[in-house]
Amino acid sequence: MESQYSSLPNIQSQAYELAYKLARERLASMDVEELCHKAGVQRVDSNKIIIKYLNQSYLVTIPEGEISLKDGEEEVPLRDKILILHYLTLAKGTPATNRLITFKQLPAGTSYFPAFSQRTIKPLLNHFGKEPELLVDAAAKLGGHKASYGDVSVTINVFSRVPVTIALWKGDDEFVPGGSIMFDSSISDYLSTEDVSVLCETISWRLAIP
Predict the structure, then answer these.
(1) Is 168 helix (H, G, I), strand (E, B) or coil?
(2) What are the tens digits of pLDDT across the range 69-85?
(3) Which of 72, 141, 150, 177 lies in disulfide reach of 129, CB 3.0 to 4.6 Å?
(4) pTM for this one?
């Protein structure tokens, strides 16, 4: 996984570094108790937060915004750090609506959907299209559980208040395999459309790569 992140073009890496810097500055300016309440995360002590992300626990220092695995020493990829900080700083505490929407229904989602589909749905279909039932075990490693959409579907609680549902349809002689990624309609109160795209790309990579 790390090699994929580190192979980003330099200009994009610089953009990520700037995004991380800005997110850390925003975190440092916020009321920590309110932030924890809205994001549904645990404050450990005066300068640490524990947040669950893709079935792993991370420590976030306050006000520095440094992020590390709670039970591991490996470096956290920069894109994951940015997603964690964006979730923490953007969270509005909106209750789940239990109404699913697709990426096209997010702000500017229709315009970006072709790229989103190419980077997220296509790799899942390439990997699971012939055996969609394998998705269930793969998703379990990320904290996912079975859902009731398509021929096979799973819901992964990426953050405590951001569930992501993936549904796959088996192909046959007439139709090619199909897939969809769906979100609770409250997701824009926790992540931007761009963040959602990066998040789903990360999930796709982790599911499709053993």
Answers:
(1) strand
(2) 998 889 999 999 999 99
(3) 177
(4) 0.91
